[in-house]
What does this fold into?
Amino acid sequence: MAKVLVVADIRRGKLRNVTLEMLGAARVIADGDTVAVALLGKDVGGLAEGLGDFGADDVYVVDAPELESYNSGTYRRALLEVMGQFNPGVLFLAHSAIGKDLAPMVAARLGAGQVSDITSFEGKGENLVFVRAIYAGKAFTKVSVRQGLVIATVRPNNLVPAAAGAGKPGTLKSVSVSFEPPDLATLVKEVITKVSTGVDLTEAKVVVAGGRGVKDASGFTHLEGLAGVLGGAVGASRGACDAGYCDYSLQIGQTGKVVTPDLYIACGISGAIQHLAGMSNSKVIVAINKDPEAPIFQVADYGIVGDLLEVVPRLTEEFKKIRV
Amino acid sequence: MNIIVCLKQTFDTEERVLIEDGRVKEDGVRFVINPYDEYAVEEAIRIKEAHEGQVTVVSVGPTRFEEAIRTALAMGVDEAVLADDPALFGDEFTVAKVLAAIIRQRPYDLILAGNQAVDDGSGQVSVRLAEELGIPHISMVTKVEVEGNQVTVQRDAEGDIEVVSGSWPLVITAQQGLNEPRYPSLIGIRKAGKKPLTHVTLQDLGLSAEELAARTEVREIYLPKPKQGGRMLSGELTNVVKELAEALHSVEKVI
It folds into this structure.
């Protein structure tokens, strides 16, 4: 048994799915002990509704204007305050923009061990072992924390989400935090929103990725069309990013993002090993490439040899029929 | 201005990973500067060129790291410290403690490092280091502007760009897109051999093995199951597209 605290992953005022995935794991690991969720932000109290039914015994809410956009210092202060009140044995954060930054700060402050970017876990209590990729998925390790507080960041799309029906109301606990000058050592002056589709690459169930074969930036509009029909996100290979067809924030690979969607459609991507590392653990992989010898076909579940500029629009039309 | 860069040597990202006797096999592997640290090295040199100063690389790892460090020196870094005493090795907790101990022994204004390494991919060390030193940090940075002791950066927040400001001393972690690292020049390579590279041990840093003890333990390393050969769809495009859509919908149930 262990008390488990889940830091809700909030993006644009909404809970990301990974929050429920962490909650699912938390319930298993807590093994009957208390599960709590921390909601950190501004005007986030409303997100607490329903978390009890997903298994949260307590919901700690830190609602403050200083938490409106993510800031390392203020979020660190807020989380440490919640930690102080709840005193968990296990702490989960998402391996997201926020969790990646917040977890190691808290780990260092508390002298704790952290396992990053976990994709599954085994055992409980002292035998709790996390599975995580190394070399972006070319190999895997099983890692445990030797003693004391266990901190883990969780890769979206991998753990089984908590199901509703726990039938608990969840006790709301409002936490007030007084921020001090060191918490505001860095200041967020502006947030420039770039992503238009709203589907987050690392959390998307479907990823449509383009490589050099897309030929130019306008070629990506075809991929956006396909991703749009499937409610997915667009990604890219390093080749496409280096060639300037798209932004580096879309890059998938050992440098760039690692994604594990249900469906990965690789368009005009040859499949350099550094790209394969970032996507080969996707559940179903479709490859479209002119070159029948392209290494991408070795990891693909379905392959089509052909010109993506012909295939992709046809696929988009075909998927539209199914989605109707 | 004193700039520190934390650097790790990693496998070239084009390398395959093989496991032998429960360890990742290193024989015959091509090593490089961790690509994210390479952005940090490049940025440090650019800041030095624009504002004057001294760039020092600090590193924790085996003696083979020297090769990567020499490359950084050839790019324009002034000196380097390598903690290659195995008593200083451990996990992210350990490495952050060791880096902090080295850095505390010298003046520093700005500390640059990769946001993660392409081997372990934990993304912990740079942020832990800032906490160990008790200074702020800004992570996942794609643009840096230095004016006086004020630093304004752009950071990648899952596709959004955040403009964040802070002042020295500060840790900045590099994200892809920050810059295009230079290749060392011939003169740079020749000079690199003569630049100081200091080796430090547990004793030099006044640390004890106990306070550095790793918090985590790797119990097993293994390779993913190889993928079974997939299905190539061929024939008339109209049919191929129908067949694929049908398979993804009815068999795989992913759309």
Q: What stands out?
A: Chain A touches chain B through 100 residues (CB under 8 Å). The longest strand of chain A covers residues 113-122.
